[in-house]
Amino acid sequence: MLQSLAESLVARVPIRYQHAARQFLKFGITGTVGATVDFTTYNLLTRGLGMTAFYTILAQPIIIANNISVFLAIVSNFVLNKYWTFRDPSRQVVRQWAGYFTLNVFTWLLNQLLVSFFTFQVPLMEAVFGDQRDNAAKALAIGCILSVNFLGSKFIVFRPKLNPAKTYSAP
């Protein structure tokens, strides 16, 4: 059922963009798995084990449990994006991991700063979400960096190698 819904959505996109639309949907599903890993780990660490420690960078308190949970999500997303979303057959896993991790270090830092900002600096978050404001902040941060991760993954990390036989040459 989910597959047919996804295909019906993709069918509404112009044909030339359907491959990218299909990848974006898969990227969203992969991201949902990653978010599940992230939120589950984060809540296990903070609510289950009571890990509430943080450190400060640029006058922002950075939540240690968020560092751990985001890292585990990055690892799961790399595996799913390589083998399912972008179906990359390359055996250059170490090179791709290095590129993916480099991209995600940037978005990881952005995630940490956004979560911290929304959690500790935006009074509306506490007023609306109470003691769940950190989880709401994580959701907002993920939404903010989604397109950066997709575009970086598609066009930098898992960019298909050009096949010289398929390149255009003038007659």
Short description:
With about 170 residues, the chain is mainly α. The chain contains six helices and two strands, in the order H-H-E-E-H-H-H-H. Strands 1-2 form a two-stranded antiparallel sheet.
Side by side, the strands of the main sheet go 1-2
What average pLDDT do the residues reach?
A: 86
In angstroms, what is the radius of gyration?
Answer: 19 Å
Compressed to H and E, one letter per element, the order equals HHEEHHHH
What count of structural domains? 1
Number of strands: 2
Estimated structural class:
mainly alpha
Regions with little confidence, pLDDT below 50 for 5+ residues: 164-171
What is the straight-line distance between the termini?
48 Å
**Fraction of helical residues:** over 70%
* Proportion in β-strands: under 5%
| Principal-axes shape call | globular
Largest sheet properties: 2 strands, antiparallel
Number of helices: 6
Spell out the key features of this protein.
73% helix; two-stranded antiparallel sheet; 6 helices; 171 residues
